[in-house]
Amino acid sequence: IQSFKLSKKTIPMKKLKFSKDEGSDFYKELNERIEQYFAEKGIRKTGNTIMIFKIILYFSLDILFYALMITSTTTIGFYTFYLLMGLSVLLTAFNISHDAAHGVAVKSKFWNKLLFSISFNLQGNNAYVWGKNHNESHHLYTNIEGSDIDVLNNPLFRMTETQELKWFHKYQFIYAPFLYLLYSINWFFFRETLMLLNYSSRTIKIEIPKNEVVKLVIYKLLYIGYMIIIPIYLLPFGWTTVLLAFLLNHFIVSILFVGVLGVSHLSDYVQHPIPDQNNKLNMSWPKLQMCTSVDYNADSIFFNWTLGGFNAHALHHLLPNICHVHYLEILPIFRETAQKHGLTYMEMPYRKSLASHFRFLKGMGTQQTFKPIPFAR
């Protein structure tokens, strides 16, 4: 669904300038207090023994569920282990791939790169493309059309005021969940493939080196091989059963993925800032992160273990050099420093962030001008 609009070619990313404001002082003090915390504790910002345990745990679950799936003797067992494997791979991405992409899963640069490459490429997607644009576009220019790779120009959805309002957009809050089911299928089959041809609903042009193009093709073929071809060859269930399991797996992974990430930046609380004609924003980079991200259950031990800190999105955007296993300990520092400098930290229960997401879809689909609502605890 993200590459639906094939008639529009992408353009180079717009690099922006930031202004100085209260966010600048906030960020300076935040970093000083965080440095002091790790110095006093005598620990590294990268992963610790808990992270090593999580790496072993999630990779082991991936292998275990695949082995159980490929040796299944019943259809129910096959579907159960296939879907559990898909869930495990998604949790591996949340907990390992993401931190490794930022170089903080472990201390070693080599192992971070290897962990990221293995855990991401084996999902059939290109680690280089996602890692580069996640770090250099989304983290730098969050929610800014033409600069953030994750801001889409898809005719089926209206996500920013600059996009044309069409009659069917008033129903987008209703049909969105059904299209969300196609997220990972689109990513695997269309998104990166169309990027090679400079066609995408994403608003930024992506350059992919030739060696990464080769990797992209090889890993997609490998993914199809071990997720579809090998089960068909080894198991007696037939190709329709395997293909249905493949599709169900992607549907479940997609809805969970969008459910975890979509509510953070697509909310009726967050802003979509527009730079001036000189490509300058009227705010600092730290303030941009605070007004474009919603955190939910940021102090939840369960979410920290399962979502790898994705629920503490504002914190992560401002401190990407810290592994998520430390988030629960540094969260009080983050809250206190934001409050001291008069910056609003938008955190809420997940149910409220989900409701906010659908209010955003409904409002953006019915109002030509849609302004975020003030956040109140």
Write up this protein.
The chain is mainly α and 377 residues long. The protein has a two-stranded parallel ribbon. Helix 2 packs antiparallel against helix 3 and helix 3 runs antiparallel to helix 4. The radius of gyration is 21 Å and the shape is globular.
Task: Please render the helix and strand layout as text.
Layout: H1 22-41, H2 49-70, H3 75-101, H4 109-121, H5 127-138, H6 172-180, H7 183-196, H8 210-234, H9 239-265, H10 285-291, E1 295-296, H11 301-307, H12 313-318, H13 327-340, E2 347-348, H14 350-366
Parallel strand pairs: 1-2
Describe the structure using short key phrases.
14 helices, disordered N terminus, 377 residues, 58% helix, mainly alpha, two-stranded parallel sheet
Largest sheet: 2 strands, parallel
Helical region count? 14
Low-confidence stretches: 1-8
Oligomer: single chain
| Biggest sheet: strand arrangement | 1-2
Strand percent estimate: under 5%
Mean pLDDT: 90
